[in-house]
Amino acid sequence: MKNIYLIGFMGCGKTTLASTLAKSLQREWIDLDERIVCQEQMPIAHIFEQKGEAYFRQVEAALLQEISCTSGKIISTGGGIVGDKRNQDSLKKGICIYLDWPFEELYTRIADDATRPLAKSYDQLKALYETRKPLYEASCTLHVNCTGQTPYHLKHYLIETLALK
Ligand code: S3P
Prior knowledge:
This protein is of the alpha/beta class and 165 residues long. Helices cover 54% and strands 12% of the residues. The protein has helices at residues 14-25, 32-40, 44-51, 53-67, 85-92, 103-110, 122-139, 151-161, and strands at residues 4-7, 29-31, 74-76, 95-100, 142-145. A five-stranded parallel β-sheet has the order 2-3-1-4-5, with helices on both faces. The radius of gyration is 15 Å and the shape is globular. Shikimate-3-phosphate binds next to loops. Shikimate-3-phosphate is lined by residues 10, 14, 33, 44, 78-80, 116-118.
């Protein structure tokens, strides 16, 4: 049974959907950011401040690589996971679901969120979104247009579409 990865920009609901999907399917849920926080013993924002983004990306890639050698898990990833070629290869070993929301919707959710070090100005975030969108599209097995959907609907849609039960 392949791992299932949820990918997408900050605020797209990867964590919420992964946890509820895992519960319904009685599978183990792993939140990659939470694993990093646990391992490093500090919040993501502090890792960025004190050790730098490059360090964070190294830890993120190493953990993903380790997890990609396992099976049957549901994994919520951080929004920047697709920026690294090594990660794209790790994601390809599983089923990868891209949760696609329009930028304006995501911006209302992440603006001024101090826990997200990359949630800076509108223009910076918009540019990051535009850069990453093609990477999410290239890395995913299933591209889900989430507009107007609740986590409940998305969960059932995924279970049916991927014939997970
Ligand atoms: C990041 C997204 C964050 C977290 C880190 C970097 C990004 O996760 O991994 O702050 O580069 O987009 P979420 O997508 O869960 O906010």
